[in-house]
Amino acid sequence: MNSIGSAYRISIFGSSHGPFIGASAEGCPAGERISETAIQIELDRRAPGKSAVATSRKERDKVEIISGLLNGKATGAPIVGLIANRDCDSSAYDALRRVPRPGHADYPAIVKYDGHNDHRGGGQFSGRMTAGLVFAGAVARQVLERRKVRVLAETVQIGNIKLDKDIPFSAAEKLVRASPVGCADRKTADLMKDEIVNAHEEKDSVGGVVRCTIIGVPVGVGEPFFGSIESLMSAVMFSIPGVKGVEFGSGFGSAAMRGSESNDPFVVKRGRVATKTNNCGGILGGIATGMPIQFRVAFKPTSSIATPQMSVDIEEKKPVELVVKGRHDPCIVPRAVPVVENSAAAVMLDEMIQGGFL
Amino acid sequence: MNSIGSAYRISIFGSSHGPFIGASAEGCPAGERISETAIQIELDRRAPGKSAVATSRKERDKVEIISGLLNGKATGAPIVGLIANRDCDSSAYDALRRVPRPGHADYPAIVKYDGHNDHRGGGQFSGRMTAGLVFAGAVARQVLERRKVRVLAETVQIGNIKLDKDIPFSAAEKLVRASPVGCADRKTADLMKDEIVNAHEEKDSVGGVVRCTIIGVPVGVGEPFFGSIESLMSAVMFSIPGVKGVEFGSGFGSAAMRGSESNDPFVVKRGRVATKTNNCGGILGGIATGMPIQFRVAFKPTSSIATPQMSVDIEEKKPVELVVKGRHDPCIVPRAVPVVENSAAAVMLDEMIQGGFL
Amino acid sequence: MNSIGSAYRISIFGSSHGPFIGASAEGCPAGERISETAIQIELDRRAPGKSAVATSRKERDKVEIISGLLNGKATGAPIVGLIANRDCDSSAYDALRRVPRPGHADYPAIVKYDGHNDHRGGGQFSGRMTAGLVFAGAVARQVLERRKVRVLAETVQIGNIKLDKDIPFSAAEKLVRASPVGCADRKTADLMKDEIVNAHEEKDSVGGVVRCTIIGVPVGVGEPFFGSIESLMSAVMFSIPGVKGVEFGSGFGSAAMRGSESNDPFVVKRGRVATKTNNCGGILGGIATGMPIQFRVAFKPTSSIATPQMSVDIEEKKPVELVVKGRHDPCIVPRAVPVVENSAAAVMLDEMIQGGFL
Amino acid sequence: MNSIGSAYRISIFGSSHGPFIGASAEGCPAGERISETAIQIELDRRAPGKSAVATSRKERDKVEIISGLLNGKATGAPIVGLIANRDCDSSAYDALRRVPRPGHADYPAIVKYDGHNDHRGGGQFSGRMTAGLVFAGAVARQVLERRKVRVLAETVQIGNIKLDKDIPFSAAEKLVRASPVGCADRKTADLMKDEIVNAHEEKDSVGGVVRCTIIGVPVGVGEPFFGSIESLMSAVMFSIPGVKGVEFGSGFGSAAMRGSESNDPFVVKRGRVATKTNNCGGILGGIATGMPIQFRVAFKPTSSIATPQMSVDIEEKKPVELVVKGRHDPCIVPRAVPVVENSAAAVMLDEMIQGGFL
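Predict the joint structure of the above. Result:
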């Protein structure tokens, strides 16, 4: 399913090795000033081929907006962007028709689509499809920022290296963008980079965790039950390839807590109702409390590794040793940071329009 | 938002202190034999007032099916069930209009609905609404079981007590149902029960983790991206009050793994393609691999505790010490087990019908 | 499919011969004053057994609201109403399992649901289900009326009798409600009544046309393409049993027009942009022009007639002469007037909330 | 709203004067052979600039498929096509910012989008957007035809010229495609052409009616109430610019009928249950009866005419005489024939997949 959202609807389309990928974002209020440059900056953050910790596939990921903007402002029509695929090397994928790569969608996709799926570069399962999420989110964040809602994603774990300090939002924003691994703390970032380089040198890959914080969300955004911020946010987060866990606030840590510890006491801060702690991650009953919304997203290690792996020839039902070729990120997490950040913006805008907050 | 699903659509309705709650389940194939008794058994598992570890609110939770079944079979029309609310004691809720309970939806709900929300018993945010999920799921599981798809949820953590052994599916199924805390291992269950009783005696509450396993799902069930099993499943799980985290397979543990460790090698088992390990939780690219689908759901401690807590009078913007009255579970997890289990069945049926597997 | 709408979502549930039918309306803004009496008045207009021109089935159609209202105001939760079925006489329906009634859904339903459908009283296809539409619409119209948006449906044709005069909106509103056939002009109404009585005496039935007018809709309500007022309105109108045609403004008459005649010239009236004529029915490009929205809905004659008809025994594939028993309206149109009117209100509220007009 | 459909989902995107328009069709079963040539043929039928009765705007409307097909077969991913806009002459549209064209969406769009809408060529309201409908439908029809479901649209009225004979489906199919006005009867087609040429010479335009017939639809396709064939079909038909009425079977004619005349008696034909007449247009209770599905779609005359018209300067609120420039069809009906036909195929495929008929 390539579409999601109610009041702000995202569709992503295309595939890894076709001529274009793209996305449509419907529901941006007419008259909103939307900078194409700002969209391109977000896409550039996600684009491959920029550092030692990323795949060597070269894609400029230059977006062409084909509708929805006129004179720099939203027209009210869906905002649609196209991104050309240039550096497609499909040769490495021919062998995968019969021998699925461990950790990839190859096997269930072959069965589901009876062998007709486009297997080149992962086809419609490619991480490259997340450029469409970034596009739609990069539009949304501009609308949000004008209303003082800001979104920040940051790498808080790579392999066994964890960020163990809190850096204030505005400072972190700049540091994360400057960091090749998306971590605001220089020293931790260096260790994370080493972790990735080590994995790469060992022909292996490594996982990690992205934390996302959204500030400025008005109290009351979100809907009960199936429209909860958690429901909508997790549905989009789990659509990002490689995501295996999502938790809000204290998340899995809550399980070991007592209520007296987990409950966030209400207090008055500068004349406003707030909570003393934020174990709930800024959400109660699915609805924003006015505190920062905070969640963490777990990424598994990149499935494509250069080490030989066990697989099977699915037609002959025989074991096969597989060496995955092609160009791949040893760790997806640094490039996932702008994906989490921008798609979170898209979800938040959807909830805000639905709730009449715009 | 009270409705979710595409091919199998659930709507839940009513509120904690109105005359009825209920649910509608649309999309059950005509002619499926659906036992009302089997539905009632699932509702009974969730019903309050049955043990020392649960609230003393007494509700028989007897369901009346008002459409969709005829002569014990689905007619093709939506299957709709009503459950009467009997033991409503609204007196305890009058104070909450101005002084929100920590950890509850009171505060954002008051702001969102401008004070017009039905605050009695949590209104539309009440955990009691999950009876509707159980109803819709209890229909779905009968359809699934006829196709050899079985769902099992079990308590694997209460506070600091964790289940540390694996019990085979069929054995666990019976043991979980016999256990007051929903844990298949008797010894662990006893420790969990103690944990809950201790929390209760200290006028406190405690959280936990429910693990859900679905076996028999055919390879290929699920859709790419926004229709992934993870996306649809997490959206429903996060709608359950108190859920703060959802992870599939190795989940957050994947973050510290190497790809060579996390990737599940393909093997041939009894003539079928399978994976040696199941770190992916039975899902690759959002689609079922044929291995057991497995995920874990983190619950925070029950928000309502008898210990005095800090809150504020939101009109006068003054601190207030609040003692929450009413009858509450010291730990929601045991009663959440059938909620997770049955709502997982509903999601799985939705995916299976969508994918043409029925 | 029993649910429709985006920002104002309607679900109808139940069936003709179960214990209850009902409906849920989600999206009514919290704090809106909603009169239960006003809802009941609309239901009473649709209720059977009230006049010589209607079925003798007796149903009080008294609604019980089980959630969504508190102290006469919307809480923000779905507003759900239940209506008991009392006068169910299922005996007449036993024969229909094998011999489908001409003009009814019996035959395709039997095939679709493989004989498992609830055939009693038409089951889920029953015109009685439209009470749910009236309920949801009766809530919506109160929200609309507070914003000066008013909806009026009226019978403009029964058989060959057509209303040939225009009666101003406010006057028509009262006259329509006072008329047993729903026609504002007394003389025409008498002729229409005769037409119905004649058909009834001849053991036959007769069709007609309902016209609906909505005034006060702000310019700009509606969305392009699939969200056009026409698309959303027609989807709901065609869900009403017996509807075979929907046209907006000049409708089918437009086909014979020239553009110079059909185009509504813009003029300035009392300082506002308006159109001189209203051939477009108040809608251009799917969006409200600010002029009255006007459409016509064609109803076929009631399918159930007491005259013997040709049918077949679908198992033996043999011709059978069928005499339909049961109690039926000789003309559905008078009771359809409040159905069209109220469901139009529901659609309009949906469009208005979606467009940010509330 | 640019997306519609459940199991077969269409999205259209782009605008009249941007670089591309396009469409996405999601839900085509993997492995279906889809001919790009066959898609192009349908697009060519709709393309402008081909005859005396159409606009002189020249667009090759050559589609480029960017995903969803591999080796001529559907991959299971959304099938996405792009069509370049080449012959954009935006100069004629500059004046419309303040003086809306009668019969066009200009005025409500300017108000709705606060003047930010893309007014060039009608922007997102342009009839050119229907190329996306044709694209998605041309994919769907290939899937349907393989299952013996065939769709035919034909012009049955232009102005006052009406087709008064019935031509068998297969013969009509070829004749309609060969006719510049889309009418199967040569003599009537000539009169229709004259009607259009006359209107054009008088700097005017003319409306008409398209009839659509779908044969081979299995009994049982369609869903009750909001999922009825009529509801889904009309929602798409009314999204086509210029459509003002939709009727099924006897449609508005039913209003003047008696039930004994309108009811289609069941008979056995060649061992199958059928109906003697088809006043219901092949649909009862929203569900296919197995008889041909038939409906009629009324188009108003093209709004753009070269005759001076009355409008207003909406800023100065003053009357203005407007002469619409640009290149326009004197009658939209001939080019609407493939739009109705192909979009009907898309709706039917959606219903068939939903109902499990594929």
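Chain D touches chain C through 108 residues (CB under 8 Å).
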